[in-house]
Amino acid sequence: MNCDIERTLVGRGWGSCHSYLQRVPTRKLLPTIAVAASFLFSACTTPPLMPYTVETQPLVLVPVSLAGVQDRRARFREIFCQVLEARGPRLPDYQPCGEVLARVGVEASVTAKKVDLGPSGQRLIAAVVPGVGWDCISGWMDPHGTMTSHVRQFGYDMITLKVDGLSSSTNNAGQIRDAVIQMPVPDHEARLVLIGYSKGASDVLEAVVSYPEVRQRVAAVISIAGAIGGSPLANDADQSELTLLTHWPEAQCSPGDGGAIESLRPATRKIWMAENPLPSDLPFYSLVTMPQPDRVSLVLQPSYKKLSQVDARNDGQLVFYDQVIPGSALIGFLNADHWAPMVPIARSHSSIGATLVNHNDFPREALLEALLRLVEEDLAVSTR
Questions:
Q1: CATH number at residue 267
Q2: Contacts of 22 (CB under 8 A, 6+ apart)
Q3: CA end-to-end span of the chain, whole Å?
Q4: Which of 42, 166, 173, 338 could form a disulfide with 317 if both were Cys (CB 3.0 to 4.6 A apart)?
Q5: Residues 314 and 214 in one domain
Q6: pLDDT exceeding 70 applies to what percent of the chain?
Q7: pLDDT at residue 21, as a whole number
């Protein structure tokens, strides 16, 4: 456990982290474990998050247009805003579009094209690959399946692919491959939309590169708050800290191959990207989380502040530019911290939502519908 938490426990008379964990029932540990579960911790000292090294790929930070990234924010804004307006306050955690989508720099004018909000013609299936530790906390959180039930009203579907929450992206890429191959073969065009959240996005990229047989079943790849370039916070973290999650209430996870943190380190991710060109036969989309500082939940504030040593434009886990897939379509910046778009903690645990995870409200159902409608619209254009 990190030393800031250690100092807090000792200061309150609880003794060391080790003795505290032994003495207190697991369910009473939630506030402490929740802080640890952000997995990228504040350390006792403040060494550089990006240490000096020459063991790196030559890098350059350039505007998205010079990185082969297509700016599709205007069209996604149209779709997302119209979905929100049409579904309105009936959806959980409804927020006006202007509060959900941030404007970063100059954004193109809207296209004024009609947005089709009717039944899906292609019946796309969102296959979500979650982030670190999902299989450890999902039973406790009980996400209720509201995103799935929402999109099914319009002919879409959503499933969550099971991967090892504490394993490496290489390990999980193989699990994604096996899950996709075991699915029934569709009777027409590829309908699977792989959505990688956080580290899940890195798992997905490794899967579609390492296993070409997956691609014939995949219509598109979407990254939501994806750890594409890794996180500087991972340089100062240790895999052993993540193993706390195996003691979470109702956890159904194992230590796996122990490679999750290594897979999140910037050097690991950037070297992998340099050595593994993405396939040109798949469309890739990047959705970035870049909250205003007052939209970061309390539990993520320490890591947000620490990551601000690199760049204040972060979501508490990742810097905004490390979330963009090279050569992808950049579709938006969400005014949300790292957990808000995909981890509905506050809906299941209102007391934690009112305190530690106090900015967890987000219209996730509308977001998923808007993403699928954008992909379906693009697929229809590409097949004309």
A1: 3.40.50.1820
A2: none
A3: 55
A4: 338
A5: yes
A6: 86
A7: 37
